[in-house]
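Now for our specimen.

. . .
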Amino acid sequence: MNEENNEELNEQSQSLTEQNSQSNMSQQASKKVANRVLNSKESKKALRSLLKTLGPILIKLGMVLIALIVIIGIIMFVVSMPGMAMEKLKKMLTTAGNSIAAFYGADTTKMIEDEEIYESLDYLKQMGYELKDMRFLDKIYDR
């Protein structure tokens, strides 16, 4: 029984070895063919003629794509720049005006609206504070 198994294993290993050698030979043959095709004068001539034909087209296509990207960039700059410039100018002029007014004795305190007070009270209540017990509402109830 063991001899039969050994013979079977030997036959299988020999067939695998033969298959591997055949596949190696076929791979070597395909590499040779590929090298011959790549190195042949005809393939070089075909590649050169293809490049001569497609070269100007690809250059023009590249130039159009670059021009398109530049145009989109300029448009985005023109669209967004005025808003940014106006915002900075407005902030700068407001700061300068407040500084001049403060120099001549103007009141620089900020006026707080009732709506801001109510928003703050709602926020404190959401955080779990008891507004009346912690004396947040004394001034409102005294009115």
